[in-house]
Amino acid sequence: MRQSWVKTETAGCDLGDKRLNRRLGAIFEALGERPGKSLLRAFQDWSNTKVAYRFFSNGNVSDLES
Questions:
Q1: Which of 1, 28, 31, 35 has its CA 20 to 30 A from that of 52?
Q2: CB atoms inside a 10 Å sphere around CB 23
Q3: Whole-model pTM?
Q4: What tens digit of pLDDT does each residue of 24-44 get?
Q5: What is the number of structural domains in the chain?
Q6: CATH number of the domain residue 58 falls in
Q7: What gap in Å lies between CA 37 and CA 25, rounded to an integer?
Q8: What is the Cα–Cα distance from 28 to 64, expressed in whole angstroms?
Q9: Spatial CA neighbour of 27 closest among 15, 65, 66, 64
Q10: pLDDT in tens, 8-20
Q11: 55, 61 in Cβ contact below 8 A?
């Protein structure tokens, strides 16, 4: 039930790759569980933080237009 808000918020998102869509949901969930925290604290370890940074720098994600 916890993820229902994440699914609602990401329902219309299509980043062109199912893995990116799932990662977006995971990022929203992590940030939602730890609002106001730095990315490192939100993702709880360096490995997950690196994954988030890779997500944000992905051309399919960062080049989206509003």
A1: 1
A2: 18
A3: 0.78
A4: 999 999 999 999 999 999 999
A5: 1
A6: 1.10.246.40
A7: 18
A8: 17
A9: 15
A10: 988 888 888 899 9
A11: yes
For 29, residues 6+ apart whose C-beta sits below 8 A from its C-beta are 2, 3, 6
46: its two tokens: 């360096």
**Nearest Cα residue to 20 out of 46, 54, 49, 65:** 54
Q: How far apart are CA 62 and CA 39, in angstroms?
A: 17
Residues in the chain: 66
| Side chain identity, residue 30 | A
Tell which residue, 32, 33, 38, has the closest CA to residue 53: 38
Distance between first and last Cα of the chain: 29
